[in-house]
Write a structure and sequence with these properties.
- This protein is mainly beta.
- The chain has two helices and 22 strands.
- The protein has a five-stranded antiparallel beta sheet with strand order 7-17-12-22-8, with no helix packed on it. It has a five-stranded antiparallel beta sheet with strand order 9-11-18-13-14, with no helix packed on it.
- It starts with 6 loop residues before the first helix and ends with a strand.
Length: about 375
């Protein structure tokens, strides 16, 4: 909650939605101990999929330095590295994909023809359905030209709706796919307008509460990094779900999600924000206009993330982030005044300005196993 509501009002909301600490699976195994599952793809195991024993909480003060890489800017990877092209659950129809910042790169819709030459920017189809792009380098200085990449996704005019509606991807607390939870806070840097009683990073560990109160508020632009007891690997379907504490389906506070294998190199999930109107402190968002953000669903329901959406990130292609060995997850609060943009150049809006418990309110992060 970015707004510090009156206590009576907050307890009334809590009474309506239930303040019990719902659990997924065996409560005694909430921290992931004893789980020994794999997240395989095509029947082949990819290694451990669960969390180890819980560890101590390590925090940096509110004046600490934000870790390097926050903001989605990867380090330089060399003259022949592929540039970043965003990939997420679906590209927004009619949007523009661009690598204009890298003159060495070319994009083209697949199949390519002489009438559709590659360029630095591609306009996606306006009709929903599958689409593929080819990304290539045209740098004469590369001794061994990199093999072109084919990026495949779908185009959609709308994204999945609120929890409980047909087509929603929301992950409930009792979802049988949940096999573990984050076990350690490795760093936190609070943003502005968050009171001390919401600076409780340990609340992000273990099983989500699904209530309005058992959360850590990051403040405007705040950053919190979590660690998992065991490495998590890419498989079929989503591998993580991030729980926020929104008390409604449309009062949504958004966060970027970044992953790392070593705690140093992070890759950020691409985002799409299709809303065009600024949102005030009590404003609402339409979930079908949002993709790639944590906080899309109300309390008690997590937003899922699929490691496969990161497979073409430059740090992944360079081997600096291993999608078969993810150990860290970082949440970065979105400053929703329109000053930040999604990966397609759209301004991002969420409730602004706020105070008291400003910023993304993190309840927990669940580890998911692949479907059978």
């Amino acid at each position: 909650m970015k707004i510090q509501k009156p206590v009576g009002f907050m307890f009334a909301i809590a009474a309506l939605i239930g303040c019990s600490n719902a659990s997924a699976g065996d409560p005694a195994d909430a921290d992931g101990q004893g789980d020994s599952l794999t997240n395989g793809s095509g029947g082949a195991p990819n290694g451990p999929k669960t969390n180890g024993p819980a560890s101590h909480v390590s925090t940096a003060g509110s004046g600490s330095t934000v870790p390097a890489g926050v903001g989605g800017t990867p380090p330089a990877l060399g003259p022949c590295s592929m540039p970043r092209v965003p990939l997420l659950e679906a590209w927004p129809s009619g949007a523009k994909l661009s690598v204009a910042s890298d003159p060495r790169a070319r994009l083209a819709l697949v199949p390519t023809t002489d009438k559709t030459p590659a360029s630095n920017e591609v306009t996606l189809p306006t009709t929903d359905g599958p689409v593929s792009l080819q990304l290539s380098l045209v740098d004469a200085d590369c001794a061994s030209p990199t093999k072109p990449l084919e990026l495949s996704s779908t185009v959609a005019a709308h994204y999945p709706p609120s929890a409980g509606l047909d087509g929603s991807t929301a992950v409930p607390l009792a979802d049988p796919r949940i096999v573990g939870w984050a076990t350690k806070v490795t760093s936190v840097s609070y943003g502005a307008n968050v009171d001390a009683n919401w600076k409780k990073p340990e609340r992000a560990l273990g099983v989500a509460e699904g209530t309005s109160f058992g959360v850590v508020s990051l403040g405007e632009g705040g950053v919190l990094t979590l660690e998992f007891g065991r490495a998590i690997s890419d498989g079929a379907g989503p591998e993580f779900a991030v729980f926020e504490n929104s008390f409604g389906d449309r009062f949504l506070e958004l966060g970027y999600v970044e992953l790392s294998s070593d705690g140093t190199h992070f890759v950020r999930f691409a985002t799409a924000s299709l809303g065009t109107t600024p949102v005030d402190a009590y404003g609402e968002l339409e979930p079908t206009q949002l993709a790639g953000f944590a906080g899309k669903y109300r309390q008690g329901f997590g937003t899922p993330f699929d490691l496969a959406w990161l497979r073409f990130e430059p740090l992944v292609l360079a081997g600096l982030v291993d999608l078969q060995a993810i150990r860290y997850l970082r949440v970065v609060d979105v400053i929703g005044d329109g000053s930040q943009s999604d990966d397609f150049g759209h301004p991002i809006y969420d409730p602004t300005p706020t105070s008291g418990s400003a910023g993304f309110d993190l309840d927990a992060v669940a580890v998911l196993t692949s479907p059978a």
